[in-house]
Task: inverse folding
């Protein structure tokens, strides 16, 4: 088969690629309002229609969200995250808990086996932020700290594929944790299970770490069920 000339990417495609890079790199984190259209036109040195088409494409893909009268916000960091969010919207919180459970039990076991001193310092710091937010009744800060703790545990596995996969589930995790917090601030069983998980990782006890993860997820599921039935959700 003879070689054929490759098509040059359109200007819109180039703008989409630049915006995707800003989102994926974290320069535009999830929840951030992106610059207004005139600023994008000026910074990218392209026409208004090109910017509109690029933004519209990313809104359609689920990476951006246009809010009437308020601007456009980053909704997901990748096509996979956007797809997961759409899937979560069609499934139950309990199903999301089941997915978390499968990954987090393995992560806890591996973290206990492989963690370094630096990993443990990151885990301890995240647990401290989580505890401080819980004491302050800071729901938003608590959810972010809880996610950071579980991410630190996953990072301690030093399994690149697991870390990458779990990173794509961050927004799904936020959905389950926020759901529990809307139902009612977590009870002492969940708090103690998180502390037990960190202790097991510190002591390099894989079985104890796995059991602590199972307890904390089970307790969180039970609290969500209980408080939802009481009308808290």
Result:
């Amino acid at each position: 088969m003879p070689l054929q000339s490759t098509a040059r990417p359109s200007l819109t495609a180039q703008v989409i690629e630049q915006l995707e890079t800003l989102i994926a790199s974290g320069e535009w984190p999830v929840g951030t309002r992106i610059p207004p259209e005139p600023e994008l036109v000026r910074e990218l040195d392209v026409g208004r229609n090109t910017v509109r088409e690029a933004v519209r494409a990313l809104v359609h893909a689920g990476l951006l969200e246009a809010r009437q009268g308020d601007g456009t916000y980053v909704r997901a960091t990748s096509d996979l995250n956007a797809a997961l969010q759409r899937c979560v919207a069609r499934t139950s919180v309990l199903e999301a808990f089941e997915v978390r459970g499968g990954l987090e039990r393995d992560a806890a076991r591996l973290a206990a086996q492989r963690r370094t001193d630096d990993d443990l310092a990151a885990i301890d710091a995240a647990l401290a932020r989580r505890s401080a937010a819980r004491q302050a009744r800071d729901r938003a800060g608590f959810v972010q700290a809880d996610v950071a703790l579980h991410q630190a545990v996953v990072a301690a596995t030093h399994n690149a594929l697991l870390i990458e996969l779990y990173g794509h589930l961050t927004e799904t995790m936020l959905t389950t944790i926020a759901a529990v917090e809307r139902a009612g601030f977590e009870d002492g069983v969940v708090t103690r299970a998180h502390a037990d998980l960190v202790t097991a990782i510190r002591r390099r006890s894989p079985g104890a770490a796995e059991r602590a993860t199972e307890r904390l997820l089970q307790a969180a599921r039970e609290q969500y069920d209980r408080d939802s039935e009481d009308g808290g959700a």
